[in-house]
Amino acid sequence: MEVDHIYICTDYKAPAGELLKEFGLTEGTSNTHPGQGTANRRFFSHNFMLELLWIENSDEVKSNLTRPMKLFERCNKFDTNISPFGIGLRPANEKNEKVLFPVWEYHPLYLPDFLKIQVADGTPLSEPMFFYLSFADRQDKYPAEKKENMKHSLPLKEVTNIEVHINQKNEFSEAAKIINNIDNLLLIKDNENYLKLTFDKGAYKKEKDFRPNIPLIINW
């Protein structure tokens, strides 16, 4: 497994996305998620997507279909004891590679019937949501008609290291322990929730801290 994308729960319409554009990231296409009640703004690199996620429809996000995802709690309360992140994983090598942690299957209305999202089971809200997308691939491997804009005004190509700081003192869940063995991903117990992305092994030795507007640090 490897990281496909990470979402950050944000305010409605994600105005903080303008800070990422001012920084030099090119914004990709946005999505709404019918039946799930969420929408996003997205920023792509060759191997990773950063998603700013918000609640678009409260009734849908609290529906029987979506409630088990706990998106309402994660994206509505902005509680420091609740992680605002979701970590989407994909096969590192072969398509349909089996997920390595205990999951339950989510079949959202916006995906074809034969596709599913496998969500980690038994994880607390203090940890990120972990989910597996057996059908996902690197952005730079998609055909031309499906590729998003990966060119930025800054020289950023690939995310080579990810740190997810988690405001949690208790022992990690079984899923978190397994995921913490993934290459280039580190889950760290801390006193606050934030995400640190390193592009291209930090070749330029530069850093941008978006806190408190976005719980995000970018190294490049």
Summary keywords:
220 residues; mainly beta; 2,3-Dihydroxybiphenyl 1,2-Dioxygenase, domain 1; five-stranded mixed beta sheet; 4 helices; 13 strands
Briefly say what this structure is.
The chain has 4 helices and 13 strands. With 220 residues, the protein is mostly beta strands.
User: What would you report as the Rg, rounded to the nearest angstrom?
Assistant: 16 Å
CATH architecture type = Roll
Instruction: Indicate the CATH topology.
Output: 2,3-Dihydroxybiphenyl 1,2-Dioxygenase, domain 1
How many helical stretches? 4
Could you give the distance between the termini? 24 Å
What does the average pLDDT come to?
A: 94
Q: Sum up the overall morphology in one term.
A: globular
Structural class: mainly beta
Query: What spatial order of strands do you see in the largest sheet?
Result: 2-3-4-1-5-8-7-6
Query: Quick one: CATH class?
Result: Alpha Beta
Low-confidence stretches are none
Strand % is 25-35%
CATH superfamily: 2,3-Dihydroxybiphenyl 1,2-Dioxygenase, domain 1
Which series of helices and strands comes N to C? EHEEEHHEEEEEHEEEE
